[in-house]
Write a structure and sequence with these properties.
Helix content is 45%, strand content 14%. By secondary structure, the chain is an alpha/beta fold. The chain has a six-stranded parallel β-sheet, sandwiched between helices. A six-stranded parallel β-sheet has the order 11-10-9-12-13-14.
């Protein structure tokens, strides 16, 4: 099957590479000539484990290519996936659909035979109906169907998520479109992965509902963590006791500095806006957004308290600034709230992150970057564990404390055992949700 992917961002690139590995002939289209040239030469612009090797393998096999020729890629495709960005629109919190609608109109002008136009981007309910309207407006004679196929990729584990999904959601309005999507995902059908076929509107809503619920779990345990600190409970024990209940589950019940990334912040904001426009306010989602912001500010207070109430002249080493490990994504990362506050209050901030420097140098002015965690700790008066990269899960704590001027640690991911940290020479240690 011939497939065109419009957009070579995170979702588009991962989807295109994985679909080519299914055996399809895939062309990934982008308007940026430099990006197309880099991808053609095997240079991947994002950090995602395994992606570069999988891309190279499928390019070599002749199944995957990259192009700036929109019309040529679309005109020969059986299915065209829209995988462009839908960032939060300034001013109202809604998803900005400008790129989606531009892509739809260009697709409409390029269609030459029956084509299924598949929206992969995360879009509000009703977007696919508007995509259909816009295609018809520019090409009334076009033979096509619109489908919704939201993505559920976790950064850092995206390839496995695509190849071994919990489920694939397909929203369609015709059997003809359903048959095409069945061919696209036939390798998953054959391995009995669940394929959920719905109407367009339900598929659109599933994506937002899923992400809002996961954000709610994270925020709930973070609020419980704050209460644990007040009453003397241990949030790690509480989350374990909760998570062993099969109705709850243990995933997304790890206390920390709040959620961030490319999905949860913008999708909770968009869902809240959808509810407002429909006259059905999403009160829980709105509360989740508010509490998540307060969680980040509470982490700042933890660091200030650890440093004796003031940050001027403090030398603080921060381990991890990406929103999660195994990604270089800095979008809405807690670090973007916490570190500027530390710098703004006079601290000298040193940063170590395996993949965050490329974006972080622009997003975090005023910090100093290090590659070696122990060099960064030399003369430091406090250490903050902010992202749980594997490199930071087994630090030589004694060596770290010896390097520091004042051995103090804020473990905002609850990586370490408090007794072990103190035994290694740290005078003060604070974590999240543990008294």
């Amino acid at each position: 099957m011939k497939i065109a992917i419009i957009g070579t961002g995170y979702v588009g690139l991962v989807s295109g590479v994985c679909l080519s590995d299914f055996g399809h002939e895939v062309v990934c289209v982008d308007k940026d000539p430099a990006k197309i040239d880099a991808l053609t030469h095997g240079k991947v612009p994002i950090y995602e484990p395994g992606l570069e090797d999988l891309l190279a393998r499928n390019v070599e096999a002749g199944r995957l290519s990259f192009s700036g020729d929109f019309a040529s890629a679309v005109s020969s495709a059986d299915a065209v996936f829209i995988a462009v960005g839908t960032p939060t629109r300034r001013g109202d919190g809604h998803a900005d659909l400008t790129f989606v609608y531009e892509a739809a109109e260009e697709i409409g002008r390029a269609i030459t035979g029956y084509t299924v136009v598949v929206t992969k981007s995360t879009v509000p309910v009703g977007t696919n109906a508007e995509v259909e309207r816009r295609i018809k407006a520019v090409n009334p004679d076009a033979d096509f169907d619109v489908a919704s196929n939201p993505e559920f990729l976790r950064e850092g584990a995206a390839i496995d998520d695509f190849m071994r999904p919990d489920r694939v959601v397909v929203g369609v309005s015709s059997e003809r479109a359903a048959d095409v999507l069945a061919d696209v995902y036939r390798p998953l059908y054959l391995r009995d992965f669940p394929i959920v076929v719905t109407d367009l509107e339900s598929a659109e809503m599933i994506k937002y509902a899923a992400n809002a619920f996961l954000a709610t779990k994270i925020t709930f345990i973070n609020e419980i963590a704050a209460l644990c600190e007040r009453v003397g409970a241990d949030v790690k024990q509480v989350s374990r006791g909760m998570g062993l209940d099969n109705r709850i589950g243990n995933k997304f019940l790890h206390a920390g500095p709040g959620y961030g990334g490319s999905c949860f912040p913008k999708d909770t904001s968009a869902l809240a806006r959808i509810g407002q426009e429909a006259g059905m306010p999403m009160r829980i989602t709105e509360a989740v957004m508010d509490v998540n912001d307060r969680v980040k500010r509470r982490m700042i207070d933890k660091v200030i308290d650890l440093c004796g109430g003031q940050l001027s002249d403090q030398r603080i080493v921060v381990y991890g600034v990406t929103f999660k490990p195994n990604t270089d994504d800095m979008r809405d990362a807690p670090s973007l709230t916490i570190l500027p506050a530390l710098v703004g209050q006079g601290a000298e901030v040193r940063v170590v992150d395996p993949e965050g420097r490329r974006e972080g140098e622009t997003l975090l002015p005023g910090v100093t970057w290090f590659d070696d965690p122990y060099e960064a700790a030399t003369g430091a008066t406090a250490a903050i564990l902010l992202t749980e990269w594997n490199e930071f899960r087994a630090l030589d704590l004694a060596r770290l404390s010896d390097r520091m001027e004042t051995p103090r640690m804020a473990d905002l991911r609850n990586i370490y055992d408090p007794d072990a940290v103190k035994a290694a020479g740290f005078a003060e240690y604070v974590s999240v949700g543990r008294a």
